[in-house]
């Protein structure tokens, strides 16, 4: 199944499962009703920022919009089995290294952010969780609420999604980082 099909199906199923109309989700996520409808009909591929807003509006993680519902847990997860999603606007690349484990909520996500690219996410509000970011290569500035963190290769930052967060590649090359999330 193609990633746009997965996103469309998951978005619609999650929205309807929560009893939300297009209008209600638009209000909760600050994404237009027209854009949500286009995504659900596979007429548009959402950007990373739009995915983040939709996930926050639904009170779920971005992973839940990008992964099939019944992803099977395995001891060995080969590179070719790790789902990849690319932001159609800025080329942001997201690889689901490890989907959320049912028992712990632990998941691993590798992100490649092109030089000069910036991605902003709203606060997740009452569904907030903590995450750790390990910058594998490059330079990255993170605005977390009112705080700004300048990271260099090898740095680790722990922060939540309780405040708005922006990832800003301030370097001249792509940066790559690993997000370790624990929602358990």
What does this structure look like?
With 184 residues, the protein is of the alpha+beta class. Helix content is 26%, strand content 32%. The protein has five helices and ten strands, in the order αααααββββββββββ. The chain has helices spanning 3-17, 22-29, 33-40, 48-58, 62-66, and strands at residues 84-86, 93-98, 106-113, 118-121, 130-137, 139-144, 147-152, 156-160, 165-168, 175-182. It has a six-stranded antiparallel beta sheet, with no helix packed on it. It has a four-stranded antiparallel beta sheet with strand order 4-9-6-7. α2 (22-29) packs across α4.
Cα radius of gyration in angstroms: 16 Å
Overall geometry: globular
Order of helices and strands: HHHHHEEEEEEEEEE
* Spans of at least 5 consecutive residues with low confidence: none
Overall pLDDT metric: 87
Distance between the termini: 28 Å
Assembly type of the chains comes to single chain
Count of discrete alpha- or pi-helical segments spanning 4 or more residues: 5
| Estimated helix fraction | 25-40%
Give the strand order of the largest sheet, numbering strands 1, 2, ... along the chain: 1-2-3-10-5-8
SSE-based structural type: alpha+beta
What's the story with the biggest beta sheet? 6 strands, antiparallel
Query: How many runs of DSSP E, i.e. beta strands?
Result: 10
How much of the polypeptide forms β-strand, as a percent range?
25-35%
């Amino acid at each position: 199944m193609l990633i746009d099909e997965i996103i469309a199906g998951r978005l619609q199923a999650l929205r309807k499962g929560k009893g939300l109309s297009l209008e209600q989700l638009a209000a909760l996520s600050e994404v237009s009703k027209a854009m949500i409808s286009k995504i659900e009909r596979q007429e548009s591929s959402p950007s990373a920022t739009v995915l983040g807003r939709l996930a926050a509006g639904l009170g779920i993680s971005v992973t839940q919009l990008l992964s099939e519902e019944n992803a099977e847990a395995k001891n060995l997860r080969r590179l070719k089995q790790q789902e990849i999603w690319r932001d159609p606007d800025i080329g942001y690349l997201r690889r689901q290294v490890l989907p959320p484990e049912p028992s712990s909520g632990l998941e691993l996500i590798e992100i490649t952010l092109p030089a000069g690219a910036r991605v902003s996410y709203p606060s997740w509000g009452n569904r907030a969780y903590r995450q750790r970011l390990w910058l594998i290569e490059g330079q990255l500035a993170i605005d977390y609420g009112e705080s700004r963190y300048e990271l260099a290769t090898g740095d680790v930052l722990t922060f939540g999604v309780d405040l708005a967060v922006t990832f800003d590649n301030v370097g001249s090359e792509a940066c790559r980082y690993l997000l370790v999330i624990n929602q358990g």
